[in-house]
Design a protein that fits this description.
CATH topology: TIM Barrel
Strand order of the largest sheet: 1-2-3-4-5-6-7-8
Largest sheet: 8 strands, parallel
CATH class: Alpha Beta
CATH architecture: Alpha-Beta Barrel
Number of domains: 1
Low-confidence stretches: none
Structural class: alpha/beta
Radius of gyration: 17 Å
Number of strands: 8
Helix content: 25-40%
Distance between the termini: 24 Å
Length: about 270
């Protein structure tokens, strides 16, 4: 089965050569992939380096690839006018902590004036707002101040396992009401608090979402290369077939599984 992944960190975790090899090897499993540029603790902490990184991968003419920025606060205000040059699919305002745009999951700030101004730029340029890593205050400020498309690229669900990086039912509803999608992360800390979670932990989050919210807005956002804490035997795209088999065994039909794994992502791309 093809996979649409809303969040993979390989291009800031590995060298260009290694990432290119990985992508080439895995394209047969992928429908779409968002290559996330994590800026907070990497060398990609300014516009020029981010632009060059994206251009290097665009030069490969990889048709299944989209780009996202994880923590766009590193781009200076004078460079905001150049954001359209990046051809971004999405951008998040924060990583885990407060910055000049707003509050991260472990922070206390809400959306700042600079954050509001940047939201206008993202909206004008049809860049999707990724609410991953936001605290609740910043999330709700964004819901109020942003009329563009909203997603959460990689998270789990507070009602299944409480964690600062997970989102509450009210947030899920707000994203769905705006026509957005939500990528389920495979990070053990968010799934169950375990360093090596079980596949059953993933299924528990999927089943909670589908039973409560339906199967039209849930996607996959693996966070591969953004964590070492992945479920045993679920650390690669081909390994996700194990998850498919487990879902089938508990009664999930082909249509629902395909929606979660790639159709919902595809449908969202057609609508924006």
């Amino acid at each position: 089965m093809k996979i649409g992944d809303l969040h993979n960190d390989i291009i800031t975790a590995k060298t260009f050569k290694k990432a290119k090899k990985y992508l080439t090897k895995n394209f047969k499993y992928l429908n779409k992939i968002v290559l996330a540029i994590w800026t907070t603790h990497t060398k990609y902490n300014n516009f020029l380096d981010i632009e060059l990184l994206i251009k290097n991968y665009q030069a490969l003419n990889l048709p299944k690839v989209l780009f996202g920025i994880e923590d766009i606060s590193v781009i200076r205000e004078q460079d905001h006018i150049k954001i359209p040059n990046l051809n971004l699919f999405y951008a998040s305002l924060t990583w885990n902590y407060d910055n000049e745009l707003g509050g991260g999951a472990y922070g206390n700030l809400g959306l700042t004036l600079k954050g509001k101004n940047l939201l206008k730029i993202l909206q004008e340029n049809k860049v999707v707002l990724d609410t991953a890593h936001q605290n609740q205050k910043t999330f709700w400020d964004c819901i109020e101040n942003f009329d563009g498309n909203i997603i959460n690229s990689h998270t789990c669900f507070d009602s299944v396992f409480k964690h600062k990086r997970n989102i509450a039912d009210q947030q899920i509803n707000a994203i769905i009401q705006k026509g957005g999608i939500i990528g389920l992360s495979l990070v053990g800390d968010f799934l169950s608090g375990e360093k090596k979670p079980k596949i059953e932990d993933v299924i528990r989050h999927i089943d909670y979402f589908v039973q409560k919210f339906g199967d039209h807005n849930l996607c996959i956002g693996t966070d591969f290369f953004g964590t070492d804490n992945l479920p045993k035997n679920l650390n690669s795209y081909p390994a996700l077939s194990i998850l498919v088999e487990k879902l089938q065994k508990i009664g999930y039909n082909k249509n629902t599984i395909e929606r979660i794994f790639y159709i919902n992502f595809d449908n969202f791309l057609r609508l924006i």
